[in-house]
Amino acid sequence: MAQKVLVPCSSSSSCGKVQFSPSRVHTQAIAFGGELSQSSSRKNKSLALKAVAAKGETSAPVTAKSGHEILLFDALREGLEEEMARDPTVCVMGEDVGHYGGSYKVTKGLAEKFGDLRVLDTPICENSFTGMGIGAAMTGLRTVVEGMNMGFLLLAYNQISNNAGMLHYTSGGQFKIPVVIRGPGGVGKQLGAEHSQRLESYFQSVPGLQMVACSTPYNAKGLMKAAIRSDNPVILYEHVLLYNLKERIPDEEYVLCLEEAELVRPGKDITILTYSRMRHFVLQAAKTLVERGYDPEIIDIRSLKPFDLFTIGNSIKKTHKVLIVEECMRTGGIGASLRAAIVDNFWDFLDGRPECLSSQDVPTPYAATLEDATVVQPAQIIVKVEQMLQGLI
Amino acid sequence: MAASSLASRAVASLSPSISTGASRDDAGSSSVVGFHKRSSAFTGRRVRISSGHGSSAAHGRRSCVVAATAAPVKESPPKIADIELVTREEGLELYEDMILGRCFEDMCAQMYYRSKMFGFVHLYNGQEAVSTGFVKALKKDDYICSTYRDHVHALSKGVPARQVMSELFGKATGCCRGQGGSMHMFSKEHRLLGGFAFIGEGIPVATGAAFNTKYSREVLKDLSVDAVTLAFFGDGTCNNGQFFECLNMAALWKLPIVYVVENNLWAIGMDHFRATSVPEIWKKGEAFGMPGVHVDGMDVLKVREVAKEAIARARRGDGPTLVECETYRYRGHSLADPDELRKPEQKNKYAVRDPIAAFKKYLLENGLASEADLKAIEKKIDEIVEDAVEFADASPLPPRSQLLENVFADPRGFGIGPDGKYRCEDPAFTAGTAEV
């Protein structure tokens, strides 16, 4: 076991002064629509968790008495509201974010509180208003651009790739683009192919972009705040079916680290890497696996670009087996990149090839049966893990 | 052909007399005549020309959202106003700027063919009046946003010739550290927002800078911010979605921006009339509720008049203006363009309207400068450009360690490596040899 090292955060902006909470440890989870109960958070001394956490920081565990229950969309809204109150240069722009309160209510009430200019209802022109957000960010504001559905941001690809991603570099570092591009993506409930896209695979190669995916109210709020405070252009991936997830989150202010993965369940048999909605499917599968005597270690990678190789690597060094469970398409998805990174960095620790369960390379069909077959289901996860742990693959 | 429809120049303009109102067919003669007309009326430094200013009060104080509609063509009788065209100092400044643009671009062509600069280089010869006319009417805090034809915009805005030339040579002393190149000139100090390779993608960025001004004034309550933004782009861009989308947003929110179309009639090899259903670009302003102005882009004083007015309008808070500058590029689209499609007749027609020659003539005829003054300026500029080349030649190439430096403003974006440290803390990172 490698000696763990806690390295202090090199900059205080997002991890420093506010309370820095280590990963929550979930012993039970319901896939969605229910409450996530939590054991008290514990500093696991046998595993280096927070690679770059500030020394000596812990958070008080959230008990039934402290904190407040919140749904995920509201947690996002809380994070956004707090940042807007804290920094007057933070503004939101997107379709129906203002008077309508956001098509998923993430900006509900903000226009009334902060005004129409800070929560700007744009016309339907993604490329241009994303570019406008980038121009505003270059000249001093911190913009949050909402794509009503992540898929719409395909129309803004020009601006996201060329200007958000590359402009800091091509200007020789003169202009920074502190923009957050966010919106709901992923496969929903029979929304049809175009509203069920996973854009993390499309944007992951763009140099200069940082990408994070939230999966619980707790990390949604923390990542929203961190993304807004970051000077990098950050794409925050939300999932359309996770907005009503409920959890108890701390009352105190907290900001999470954008580059870090979250250890959801420590274990020793196999490392399961996942993100977004698939985290909940993995946890659901884990219940069955644990009953059958397996001990999976589940990591929500959260940071899609860059990968938190320290957390991932430590886990692989312990378990020697990796399964990636993602909603992205098989071709060119996050799993594909993650497999390559694992092979490059941790080859010597692997007992077998890193496995990956991804969505089919199919435009998401409308019919329910076909849609279910497109994405990974908990049953498939159970089968795969058992095969891997029984040495069948 | 669309030429006949252009003959009726129903210009919804701020100052209709400024526009030549002539069709493309006889544009060659009319603008030169226009110059002569003005200069013959020139007595000392003040000249009386009729000016059809729409009442800015009427435009500014309507209560509806789209208040800034284009002024109607047939207005009430134009008011006579005294307009001081240009002082000697201003004239010399304008001349010097145009000479700098021309000389610099000519040097670029030389350097390109001597393999000192590479890739796609788009030169501005012939269009100097637009850059000078507009950019010299700005304040230091104002923003400009350009396209790949951005060398002269950068120079007009104040980016030192040395930095631009170094950038073109790909040296570490370039304005973008050699990382941008010809098509990506940026300057934070001089408020140049780029340099964009794809047409149209700079227009939203400019619109965002204008939005920032509005935001600073109305949300942050900082009334000292009154920066106006100019977006420069060409005729080909005016068929692109981002152009229309931004005209809409700018008019909707009355953003302090001026959209300057440098209509040089050609998008590489695509004739403007073959690509555009309604070739009068200035008319498209009206569709979005902003004034659309056409101006002779080979005449720096006319451009400057329109520029001053459009910029003042934006600064007042009355909203955006669309200005179409009729201009021409004497060279090909880029240094790699054989320029075989443009007919010699057209090229000659515009060659006689060279903005620098015309302005030189104007200065001399109106006693604003002597031959010696102008020669001195030309010599000075020659030296500046030579010095820029020498500086660029002598400058070092960027070292390998620079490769990863500006990818992220916050280098923690490179993530956490297998050793638990942020990758940017890895010593190999700063040597440029780290693998990411």
TrEMBL record, chain A:
Oxidoreductase keyword on record: yes
Catalytic activity field: N(6)-[(R)-lipoyl]-L-lysyl-[protein] + pyruvate + H(+) = N(6)-[(R)-S(8)-acetyldihydrolipoyl]-L-lysyl-[protein] + CO2
SUPFAM superfamilies attached to this UniProt entry: Thiamin diphosphate-binding fold (THDP-binding), TK C-terminal domain-like
SMART domains the UniProt entry points to: Transket_pyr
One BP term from GO: pyruvate decarboxylation to acetyl-CoA
Enzyme superclass (EC): oxidoreductase
A Gene Ontology molecular function term of the record: pyruvate dehydrogenase (acetyl-transferring) activity
Keywords (A to Z) from UniProt: Oxidoreductase, Pyruvate, Thiamine pyrophosphate
Signal peptide span: none
Cofactor requirements of the protein: thiamine diphosphate
InterPro entries given in the database record: THDP-binding, Transketo_C/PFOR_II, Transketolase-like_Pyr-bd, Transketolase_C
Ranges for domain Transketolase-like pyrimidine-binding: 70-245
Pfam families cross-referenced by the UniProt entry: Transket_pyr, Transketolase_C
EC number: 1.2.4.1
Reported function: The pyruvate dehydrogenase complex catalyzes the overall conversion of pyruvate to acetyl-CoA and CO(2). It contains multiple copies of three enzymatic components: pyruvate dehydrogenase (E1), dihydrolipoamide acetyltransferase (E2) and lipoamide dehydrogenase (E3).
Family matches, as PANTHER family: PYRUVATE DEHYDROGENASE E1 COMPONENT BETA SUBUNIT, PYRUVATE DEHYDROGENASE E1 COMPONENT SUBUNIT BETA
Name this protein carries in UniProt: pyruvate dehydrogenase (acetyl-transferring)
TrEMBL record, chain B:
EC numbers: 1.2.4.1
Gene Ontology MF terms in the entry: pyruvate dehydrogenase (acetyl-transferring) activity
Domain spans labelled Dehydrogenase E1 component: 98-398
SUPFAM superfamilies: Thiamin diphosphate-binding fold (THDP-binding) (SSF52518)
Record keywords, A-Z: Oxidoreductase, Pyruvate, Thiamine pyrophosphate
Signal peptide: none
InterPro entries per record: DH_E1, PDH_E1_Alpha_Subunit, Pyrv_DH_E1_asu_subgrp-y, THDP-binding
Assembly notes: Tetramer of 2 alpha and 2 beta subunits.
Protein purpose: The pyruvate dehydrogenase complex catalyzes the overall conversion of pyruvate to acetyl-CoA and CO(2). It contains multiple copies of three enzymatic components: pyruvate dehydrogenase (E1), dihydrolipoamide acetyltransferase (E2) and lipoamide dehydrogenase (E3).
PANTHER family attached to this UniProt entry: PYRUVATE DEHYDROGENASE E1 COMPONENT SUBUNIT ALPHA, PYRUVATE DEHYDROGENASE E1 COMPONENT, ALPHA SUBUNIT BACTERIAL AND ORGANELLAR
Protein name, per record: Pyruvate dehydrogenase E1 component subunit alpha
